[in-house]
Specification:
alpha/beta; Rossmann fold; 2 domains; six-stranded parallel sheet; 35% helix; elongated
Length: 277
């Protein structure tokens, strides 16, 4: 289900203004295939970024893309590929590849189109753990909306897939999150955390379009929050939608990078569980 990573997208957009490329994208799939629809790679006469699955499938696609570049092709085309003995691959599935010659003038439109394929994450909190999570997400197929009520907490250099936002009160940002956002809550303040969780519960009650809401903290913290939220009218079923503590069970390290690895692995599991097919 995963598209090419945000870091590959950044590299692609930085190189494209200097040299035309062919964007090769998995358009449709059937059966067992190495990569899902939406996966892409960018091909230059020398070099590539991304992968559509490796093996003879990718080798053949690279050759076709470079032949088109050498010939000055400007129009897109499609190729249907059966992954059988003729390709030296025994996946048994079938896919359609789309080849699209692209140039630097298309960077803005390409950034918007390719970022849309990423799964949205809303991260509340710009502290050490939040920064470690953003770094861990950088090579993965997620777009991040990073929110804090404080000024000056975000690093200056961020991937194109990360958008920062100052929101005071911070919970007001919940109303504007993209549908399907996975929410991670780890602000500098327990009071802020509580209000963000309450806003997420209100949105779940009204729209039910936040498939994962995770709160950093101990079981004791969640017991206190659960009682306070119940006093505000949250039902047990609604409160069960909140994951706290976050991270995979059994990983006990408290270092920001360890927490980030555990939380991001949990996000990958949650995203895979919700994927079609």
């Amino acid at each position: 289900m995963y598209a090419t990573s945000p870091s590959d997208l950044d590299h692609f957009l930085r190189r494209l203004p200097d040299e035309a490329a062919v964007l090769v994208r998995v358009l449709r799939t059937r059966g067992s295939v190495p990569r899902a629809a939406g996966t892409w790679m960018a091909v230059w006469l020398e070099g590539q970024i991304g992968t559509i699955g490796g093996g003879h499938l990718e080798w053949d696609a690279l050759a076709r893309a470079r032949e088109a570049l050498a010939g000055g092709a400007t129009q897109p085309w499609e190729q249907r590929v059966a992954l059988g003995p003729s390709l030296g691959q025994c996946c048994g599935g079938e896919l359609v590849l789309r080849y699209e010659p692209v140039v630097g003038a298309q960077c803005e439109a390409l950034a918007e189109r390719l970022t849309e394929a990423l799964s949205p994450v809303a991260l509340f909190g710009g502290g050490h753990v939040g920064q470690a999570i953003v770094r861990a997400l950088a090579p993965l197929p997620f777009s991040v909306r990073w929110i804090d009520s404080r000024d000056g907490v975000f690093p200056e250099m961020l991937p194109a897939s990360v958008q920062t936002e100052h929101s005071d009160p911070v919970d007001a940002a919940v109303r504007e999150l993209a549908p399907g956002s996975r929410v991670l809550i780890m602000s500098f303040s327990h009071a802020e955390d509580l209000e963000v969780v309450a806003a997420c519960l209100a949105r779940i009650r009204g729209q039910d379009d936040l498939p994962f809401v995770g709160l950093i903290g101990s079981r004791t913290k969640w017991a206190t929050f659960r009682r306070r939220l119940a006093e505000r009218g949250a039902t047990p079923a609604e409160l069960d939608r909140i994951t706290c503590p976050i991270g995979l069970p059994g990983i006990t390290g408290k270092e920001p990078a360890v927490i980030a690895a555990s939380v991001v692995a949990q996000l990958l599991l949650a995203t895979s569980a919700g994927a079609p097919g």
